[in-house]
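Limitations
The structure tokens in this dataset are predictions for the assembled complex, not deposited experimental models. Users should treat interface geometry with appropriate caution, especially where small molecules or nucleic acid strands are included. An illustrative entry is reproduced here so readers can see what is and is not provided.
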Amino acid sequence: MLGPVDYVLWFLTAILEAGVVVCALKRHSFRRYLALNIYMLGSLVVTILRFWVFSHFGLSSPQYLYFYFYSDALLTVGLYFALITLYSFVLSELQTGRYVRLAAIVLLAGTAFFSYQVIQQSSDRMLTRFVVEMSQNLYFVGLVLTYLLWGAILKLRETRAQIIQLVLSLGLYFSAFAATYALRNLYPSLHLTLGFLSQLIALSLPLAWAYTIWRIPVEARLAPSRLTAVSR
Amino acid sequence: MSRKLNSVLLAVLVLTAAMGLKTIVAAHSNTPVVVANAGGPMPPTPW
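Predicted assembly:
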């Protein structure tokens, strides 16, 4: 049985996801961040369809269960490719586009192979377990990739404020996911509270992206702060 | 060729780091499932 907080978070997520796409269209940034916007559009469709499946079949129904985890896996793959496009932005001057794509495909295939190795002992619901395992593993791959990208931003002295803000929001999102994963593992009895937490994490990403696209101009630059030597 | 091999090596290193991190985080493993994509509450899992 869902409480009012669940419904509020659900509708707020849908509104914010729609907000990202609207902000991108208004600011003429839809094509610039095409992968990010397609991911957010997909996320909005999934949020709406989940509500439809929930209202027709219920929270404990197999329909909702399967739709929930399969759609999550698809969205995780979408977010993975959105993150890879941010790599293309940051590394654009190094002409490394094809190597980034190669590494991305190898990494995705490696994650799928690793996930299969983990679940191959299971006898029932093998495909569903594979999808869930793959999705969970991709969250952690996304976490490592985001921190690597942040390192590249610092190393290459990337100054585009929008890119920096988008990468930081992804870092926050994946870190919060990992923290929730650890807390659920340490305190299984807190699954109800942590359920809210994961919904808040899902809400934080469209909020940060909508803010970034709406408030930060494309040409805005963030210069790293410098130390000044004061003569005495 | 060496740049391609470097790309593959980097991908394998990232995968190793990610799976290592997941193993550390899930040290007392009954491997919980956490979902943070799109809206909606998580259904009770049968596994």
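Some entries come with short summary sentences. For this one: The mean pLDDT of chain B is 83.
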